[in-house]
Amino acid sequence: MRGSAEESASEREKHWTKLHPSAHPQNTRMRQCRGWSWVLLLLVALGALGQKLPTRDEGLFQTQIRDKSLFHDSSVIPDGAEISGYLFRDTPKRYYFVVEEDNTPLSVTVTPCDAPLEWRLVLQELPEEASGEASGEPEPLDQQKQQVTVDEGTELFTYKGNDVESYVATSTPSGLYQFEILSTEKDSNFKVYATTTPESDQPYPELPYDPRVDVTALGRTTLTLAWKPTPTGFLMGQPVQYCVVINKEHNFKSMCAAEAKISSDDTFMLAPKPGRDFSPFDFAHFGFPSNGFGKDRGLTSNKISRAYTVKPKQSDIQKLCIGNKNIFTISDLKPDTQYYFDVFAVNSATNTSTAYVGTFARTKEEARQKTVELKDGKVTDVFIKRKASKFLRFAPMSSHQRVTLFVHACLDTVQVQVRRDGKLLLSQNVEGVRQFQLRGKPKGKYLIRLRGSRKGASTLKVLATTKPSSKQPFPSLPEDTRIKAFDKLRTCSSATVAWLGTQDRNKYCIYRKEVAENYGEEQRKREQNQCAGPETRRKSEKVLCKYFHSPNLQKAVTTETITGLEPGKTYLLDVYVVAHSGHSVKYQSKLVKTRKYC
């Protein structure tokens, strides 16, 4: 029976050869190439059958990692296309591709994104049985899988690091190529590109003969970059644009590495309008992990624990794609700060990119502001631009135990910081009049920093003194400086108001001014200047002045009825409290309207 079976098989083979000349031994190479394609498809099928996705059972997941027969990750790399991948730490990943013919050029480029990688390229040496020379009956799956997983093949190239690295060969044998990659530091992204036609593909934009980025202009808050254009755009006619990356930590070796540090919410910014290349943005401190690769290790690691990283905060990186111009001005940088600048040429059609040689620069120092000297017991007027700062210096001539600081913010709230010999004593926001008691020190020098409001310019009156507080220049104020109007006492020609006083005997002057009926609260706030005294008002607006105080703060309240008003009219009422020195502070203005019919 066995002999007849062999003869029958031989006859079938001869008949098959007549019908299919390609099956003749002289066409073995062609069948091997087809065999490579068959093996590649088989690998994909085996990978789909053998791979088990991680689950919440950590023990099961670790078992799968240790056993390659259970956790066999195989994928196909397409010829002439860049693919992206993701690696779990200490978990290698394998890709396969086929070279159909001998003496074929080959190029493989790997781009690490956010961690150093280890990768290698291996040519698989499969047995002849896998080439397709058989009776047509498929081998058992276990044997085919063993041929793929056990055979180590010939290692062609290996690399460790975080540079963009390539394997290039002008002539390679046909066969099945295995690409294996590993991240030993953390979970990481990467990109890989493989092609058998590197001369014609040219997927990555070509760099010019001088790939450096130059700083052509440098100021305190602005900087201009320039670089030579890539020949890929104007010589080869491919769509190329440039992307600029700015950060405070280091240069990046690839666009992929820069994007890994940018929040997933960030997207490409459109090219800014002419005349202002860069929109304002705030750089916040952001630290990048060390790129130390650790000790030398192979592609297989004994470590099996997995690290889940927490999503970082908003990164200190800005990426702007600016079209095809090769000169770019960046504005709104911080003075005396070092920045790193990278430029990437990006193929808009394929989204592949090439990094220029980045640069770094430190912006110029801010112009030193003139420090205003305060004299003991003298009031100093201070004007601060919007969001700007002003520095005052107070150096008492004599020994002192205490310093009294008066700050009168005439308009919006201002921030006050006081340092004595470099030590921070005070940091507060001030609205209206505030008095601070600072502990003195022999030969101590005080530096006062005033920071203006974001809403607009600020005007202040500042006084520092070592003299007793009884001689203070500013009047004492209650905590509540509002004016109360009594609606039930309102008539067609009068209005009754009240305000709080203090235990100190002060002079109070009340003024009135007729305003339009549509005079609103916003307009009142804009005109509110607590430092503008009664001397700025017309004599016809004055109602009266009187002295008032009360030893009991619970009873420190006074009322006044303003007469001679017209029916149905709106009036703005102001109360000024005047100190013995003549300095005055205005209470919050009050709008009242007389009755139209009585």
TrEMBL record:
This is Protein NDNF. Keywords: Glycoprotein, Neurogenesis, Repeat, Secreted, Signal. It comes from Knipowitschia caucasica (Caucasian dwarf goby). GO terms for molecular function: heparin binding. Transmembrane segments: none annotated. The keyword Manganese does not apply. GO terms for biological process: extracellular matrix organization; nervous system development. Residues 205-353, 475-584 form the Fibronectin type-III domain. Its main location: secreted. SMART domains: FN3. It is found in: Secreted. One of its GO terms (cellular component) is extracellular region. Secretory protein that plays a role in various cellular processes. Acts as a chemorepellent acting on gonadotropin-releasing hormone (GnRH) expressing neurons regulating their migration to the hypothalamus. Also promotes neuron migration, growth and survival as well as neurite outgrowth and is involved in the development of the olfactory system. May also act through the regulation of growth factors activity and downstream signaling. Also regulates extracellular matrix assembly and cell adhesiveness. The keyword Nuclease does not apply. Residues 1-27 are annotated as: Disordered. PANTHER family: NEURON-DERIVED NEUROTROPHIC FACTOR, PROTEIN NDNF.
